[in-house]
User: Which sequence fits this backbone?
């Protein structure tokens, strides 16, 4: 299964004398300066200490820094655990075990540890993120990154599955994207959470934001079906984010509903039918939420978290069945370009959103389920 895949190994050698003398002192000082910038909520100073060579990592760090400005940490430290090993780059790239400890206000301390890469550019050492190992497609279209050798086969499976997933999602959202897709495979949820924001605490299986890599949580036992679901959901975000430059502002339920719809094929028919039964039962019990309660990622109440995904998925499926794929995509695209959900509904469907919502809710109480087409 993995014979066609290529992996790039990290080659470690003895550094040149100047690098060997410089790094053991310079890298801990770099970490101290990074920690000072975080505690000072100084994003500009922090980002000046990051190696921006990898565009996805640079964007992830930009978003990470934006969050610590908006939600300052009460405590934060970075430390090397042990020495440094140097890559075959004239001693200008090194790997060490990084321990990050932090505490948000009125929250317990948290700790994450992982192998980290440091690079020397223009005479100064910078932080390059996790010391990822790579598996990539022969044509270079997809790259999977992992840290734990136990996840090597999972990363290879990601590369094997991605072409089919991308083709399916691109067709569904009519977004023929052909960029190199990077997927980072995390072994621990705590590490995945910390890679997003210091303030992030919610349980999750994957993550994606515009310009970032796809991030997924996996174990050596993760089956192909689970990987397909995760990849399709997160690549669904990639597709919808590509529709407009204000994609991060669309209602949360639209973003997650679209991503759930993207992964519906891989969840199986029973998965889609189970969502339909659940939403209909909630409608009968008066348990559905108003859409404005599901629209804001930061302010949605925890008890509504599941509805963001499943109520959103059901509405997106209803829109697809009633108006068709192309009209649904135009509706999403209008929102990613700055229109409100009501403006987008009027523009795409010729009706106010309140009418669409009312008709959707009425359909949930009908005796016959709505559209159950395979490809929505």
Assistant:
């Amino acid at each position: 299964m993995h014979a066609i895949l290529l992996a790039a190994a990290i080659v470690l050698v003895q550094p040149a004398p100047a690098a060997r003398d410089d790094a053991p002192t310079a890298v801990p000082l770099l970490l101290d300066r990074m920690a000072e910038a975080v505690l000072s909520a100084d994003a500009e100073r922090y980002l000046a200490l990051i190696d921006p060579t990898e565009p996805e990592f640079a964007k992830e760090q930009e978003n990470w820094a934006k969050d610590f400005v908006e939600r300052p940490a009460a405590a934060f430290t970075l430390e090397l655990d042990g020495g440094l090993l140097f890559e075959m780059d004239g001693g200008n790239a090194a790997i060490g075990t990084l321990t990050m400890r932090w505490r948000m206000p009125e929250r317990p301390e948290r700790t994450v540890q992982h192998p980290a890469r440091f690079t020397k550019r223009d005479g100064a050492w910078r932080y390059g993120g996790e010391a990822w190992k790579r598996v990539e497609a022969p044509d270079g279209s997809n790259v999977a990154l992992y840290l734990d050798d136990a996840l090597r086969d999972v990363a290879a499976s990601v590369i094997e599955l991605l072409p089919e997933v991308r083709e399916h999602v691109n067709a569904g959202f009519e977004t023929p994207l052909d960029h190199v897709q990077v997927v980072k495979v995390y072994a621990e949820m705590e590490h995945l959470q910390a890679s997003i924001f210091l303030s992030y605490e919610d349980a999750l299986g994957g993550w994606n934001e515009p310009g970032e890599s796809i991030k997924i949580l996996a174990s050596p036992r993760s089956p192909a079906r689970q990987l397909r679901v995760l990849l399709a959901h997160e690549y669904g975000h990639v597709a919808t984010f590509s529709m407009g430059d204000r994609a991060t502002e669309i209602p949360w339920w639209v973003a997650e509903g679209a991503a759930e719809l993207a992964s519906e094929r891989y969840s199986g028919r029973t998965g889609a039918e189970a969502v339909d039964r659940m939403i209909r039962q909630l409608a009968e019990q008066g348990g559905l939420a108003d859409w404005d309660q599901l629209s804001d990622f930061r302010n949605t109440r925890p008890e509504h978290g599941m509805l963001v995904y499943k109520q959103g998925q059901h509405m997106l499926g209803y829109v697809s069945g009633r108006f068709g794929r192309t009209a649904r995509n135009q509706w999403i695209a209008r929102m990613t370009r700055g229109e409100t959900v009501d403006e987008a509904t009027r523009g795409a469907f010729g009706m106010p959103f309140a009418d669409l919502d009312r008709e959707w809710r009425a359909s949930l109480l009908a005796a016959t389920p709505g559209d159950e087409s395979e490809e929505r």
In short: The chain has three domains: 8-130, 133-242, 252-364.
